[in-house]
Amino acid sequence: MLRFLGSTTRRSHFSSSLKKGSKFNATASLNVSDEGLYDEEDYDSEFGTDELSCFRGLVLDISYRPINVVCWKRAICLEFMEKADVLEYYDQTVNSPSGSFNIPAVLRIPHLLQVVKRQRININLSRKNILFRDKFTCQYCSAHDNLTIDHVLPVARGGEWKWENLE
Which CDD domains did the record assign (predicted)? Predict the structure, then answer.
């Protein structure tokens, strides 16, 4: 059983709380792969009401841009497996039979990650989609009946049939 010690303030450390070659026998240990950085499954389900469930680790890429937020168990595993450098810790510690471990607050991945580009979704410009965008509400009087679509800049003055010009 894991125990929770400490206060809610944060402190900054640049050295690891884990020693190389030491055993890690806490229930927080998980197998972490390179793909684990983007895994959306959260392992905090068994600690849903526990004090530890509120601790998350911010994962930064090599240029210190945020790429993900992970649960405290994944953060400890990333540090232990040497897949991330810890830049800052919480004051809280997790105790296990093999030792006491600080909970990482900010981690940096020391290698380049392949960025997965998201496919852009094109939504057709139609009366139905414009009304849906506006929540079926008139933008002038907030009425919900007898809705019409108007150009912000009239067609006679060069207004086009685009998302930004229709209300």
Answer: HNHc (cd00085)
Is 78:32 a contact under the CB 8 Å cutoff?
yes
Q: Between these two residues, 126 and 46, which has the higher pLDDT value?
A: 126
Residue 62 has pLDDT above 50, yes or no: yes
E strands, 12-83, are: 56-60, 66-71
Q: What gap in Å lies between CA 38 and CA 44, rounded to an integer?
A: 16
Tell me the whole-structure pTM to 2 decimals: 0.44
Annotated domain spans of the chain: 3-108, 122-167
CA distance 69 to 20: 25
Residues paired with residue 107 on neighbouring β-strands, in sequence order:
59, 86
**What pLDDT was estimated at residue 116?**
64
